[in-house]
Amino acid sequence: MLNNLLNIEQFIDEIDIPLLINYPEKDKFQSNEKLKKLLNTTSELNFEYWNNQKFYDVNNNLLTFDKLPFVVAGKERKSIPFFRLKYITKEFSEKYLFVSSLFIPQENKDSIVITIFADTTKETEIEQILKESLRNIQVVIYSTNADGTEYYFITEAVRQLFGFTPEEIYQHKFLILRTIEKDHFKKFKEFIERLRKGEASTVEYKMKDRFGKEHWVRHHGIPIIRNNKIVRIDGIILDITEEKIFQLRLENSEEKFRMLIDTADDLIFILNGFGYFSMVNKNGAYVLGFKQEEILGKHFLDLIDKEDEQKIADAFSKVLRSNQKVVFEVNFLDKFEKPITFEVHAKPMMVDGEVFGMIGIGRNITARKQYELKIKELNSKLIEANRIISIERERARQKISLLEELSKLKSEFISNISHELRTPLASVVGFAETIATDTDLPKETIKEFSEIILSEGKRLAKLIDEVLDFSKLESGQEELKKEEFIICDVVNEVTDEFEKEIAKKNLVLTKELSSKEVKIFADRKRIKQVLINLLSNAIKYTPDGGRITIIVNDFEREVELTVSDTGIGIPEKELPKLFQKFSKIYRPNAPVGGAGFGLALVKQIVDLHKGIIRVMSEENKGTTFIIRLPK
User: Fold this and answer.
1) Residues contacting 519, CB < 8 A, separation 6+
2) Residue 1: pLDDT above 50?
3) CA-to-CA distance for 95 and 84, rounded, in angstroms?
4) Does residue 459 sit in the same domain as residue 515?
């Protein structure tokens, strides 16, 4: 048998079940076509496949490669039978698999793991539907052993009725027994005795849940018998508290009804099968201006406003059809023909399925109807007032938000520009003071300090020019001066200006320009400024010996400019703030950046030309800026 298993790899495709063989020492896998078909793939089921696919366990936890059962079997050198997996197919449907892995050690050879797969999707879905149904049924369903000392299962409804979780019931078998009231325990014992005799039985008893709240329950039990022996007890437990309370109330209903009739301020009446009053309470008759005896014997319609007769006929018809309580409004006419509005709750009175009358309770809602009309009028006015208030609040909120944003921007601008001005200015002042106060400085030092002062002064001037330039563009003070020009000529001009810097760092500059003249209608000076800023950054952040590429692509209605380098790159988390004013990307050992206006100015110019700019970057690999401008 073992030899057959070891030779299985030679005829794996002839086996009519989904099969996988893996060699733990080599991370090598071999599978047959049945398994590929089961997993709905044409890919090779190799190490990369299993490492990249998503499988889940029965608790819906994502399994990493090293947690897959056949991998664990090889790693721990043991067989793992009956492991459940969930797999998400290419069509995003769920497929459930039953997996059994057999570990086979071999002397002087690599051990192997043989794994059999089975599709249990349909069975699992049925199981899930059954579990979900049992979970949603608000009745406790349970199954125990023959003597009731061990629960095989009990539904979640036990939590609502008894206050215990199913897990607590499994661990403490007699929790439910301890909830039964002492006076009712005898009935419960008799119920258990009948079950043990093999008789289906039902008992009603009072119990207190774990929080001390009283309930009435109806407990059904059914013995399951096999070969004349009880193998288990199945049953259900229903909460009948409301039913029991209603039953107790019904036992005293006649007395309570008489008390209600005598004390109620509402109109309470009974009509016979022909619609005549056979009973009316004293207070109800008084509201209509009559004595009880004056209403008895009258027909219901005799006291109704004629305009409501059709509505009453429909309501009575509904009462007789539904056999349920029906609520309707009706205008009674009192003794002086004055209308009084009642809300009537009516229900048919039946014996052996035959209607012999109707009982009704009417509440005087005349004042309420008048109030409702006034409230309706006031509500319409209130709605309009709230709408106006809401509009004004939104306006105020927008103004506050705008002011807060302006204040924030102002603070940020002052803080950033102060820092950018202070740094070079400190150098200028410091070196100038040194030259002015130290008369013994050598000429070479004075020259060096003067060059630093000049360099920092130029830096200040450049910063001020950038701020003013950006401000003009942003505020619209300076309009674009568009003209038609050849874009490749501008590219060549810019690269010529940076020829020395490129040579100094021994950079390789590649230009891929269109063979034909690509003309564009734009602001030549501003487009050149864009290229200067991008090429300057590329040179600054590309190490010696790196490469810079400039590409011009001609499309039907657009021109695409690409500036790419092999520089230090930009961290992914920093990309969103790349085009913000004063934003700087700080990298260890990177060259000191500018004021943070360069790329913000680039985006402003591109936006003004109705173009788009995108950036792609990877740390230590380089950055690419892509600009598309309409011709």
Assistant:
1) 484, 485, 486, 487, 631
2) no
3) 11
4) no
The DSSP H or E segment spanning 320 is helix 309-322
Residue written as token pair 């892509």: 626
- Read off φ and ψ for residue 415, nearest 5 degrees: -65, -50
Tokens of 57: 């366990």
Residue 87 has pLDDT above 50, yes or no: yes
On whether the pTM is more than 0.70, the answer is no
What mean pLDDT, rounded, does the chain reach?
85
The H or E element that residue 87 is part of is strand 80-88
Alpha carbon separation from 39 to 56, 97, 208, 543, 588 (Å, rounded): 14, 10, 53, 49, 48
Helix (H, G, I), strand (E, B) or coil at 92: coil
310 CB-side CA count, 13 A: 1
Same domain, 11 and 94: yes
Does residue 85 lie within any of the structural domains?
yes
DSSP at 61? P
pLDDT tens-place string over residues 216-237: 999 999 999 999 999 999 999 9
Structurally, how many domains does the chain consist of? 5
pLDDT in tens, 335-349: 888 999 999 999 888
CA distances to 309, 592, 603 from 463, rounded to whole Å, are: 90, 14, 17
Q: Is 462 helix (H, G, I), strand (E, B) or coil?
A: helix
Q: Read off the tokens for 46.
A: 């190799």
Are 263 and 238 found together in one domain? no
Distances (CA, A) of 171 to 150, 151, 175, 177, 232: 9, 9, 9, 14, 18
> Which tokens go with 492?
């060549």
- In degrees rounded to 5, what are phi and psi of residue 512? -115, 90
Whole-number pLDDT of residue 75: 92
Partners of residue 363 on adjacent β-strands: 343
| Greater pLDDT, 521 or 354 | 521
Q: Are 178 and 226 in contact (CB under 8 A)?
A: no
Q: What is the pLDDT of residue 2?
A: 44
Contacts of 17 (CB under 8 A, 6+ apart): 34, 116, 117, 118
Q: Are strands 547-554 and 558-565 parallel, antiparallel or unpaired?
A: antiparallel
Q: Does 280 fall in a domain?
A: yes
Question: Is the residue at 238 inside a domain?
Answer: yes
Distance, in Å, from the CA atom of 341 to the CA atom of 344, rounded to the nearest integer, reads 9
Point out the domain boundary residue: 475, 502, 523: 475
Whether 582 has a pLDDT exceeding 90, the answer reads: no
- DSSP assignment of 586-611 equals --TTPPP---S-HHHHHHHHHHHTT-
In angstroms, rounded to a whole number, what is the distance separating the alpha carbons of residues 247 and 240? Answer: 10
Q: What confidence tens digit (pLDDT) does each residue in 429-440 have?
A: 777 888 888 777
> What are 146's two structure tokens?
């023959």
DSSP bridge partners of 62: 56
Count CB neighbours of 98 within 10 A. 16
232: helix, strand or coil:
strand
Rg of the chain over all Cα atoms, to the nearest angstrom: 45
**Looking at residue 227, which CATH number applies to its domain?**
3.30.450.20
Range in 123-137, 229-243, 319-333 with the lowest mean pLDDT: 123-137
- Three-class secondary structure of residue 326 per DSSP: strand
- What residues make up the domain containing 454? 436-475
Alpha-carbon distance 525 to 534, whole Å? 14
Same domain, 626 and 486: yes
Q: Flag whether 381 is in a domain.
A: no
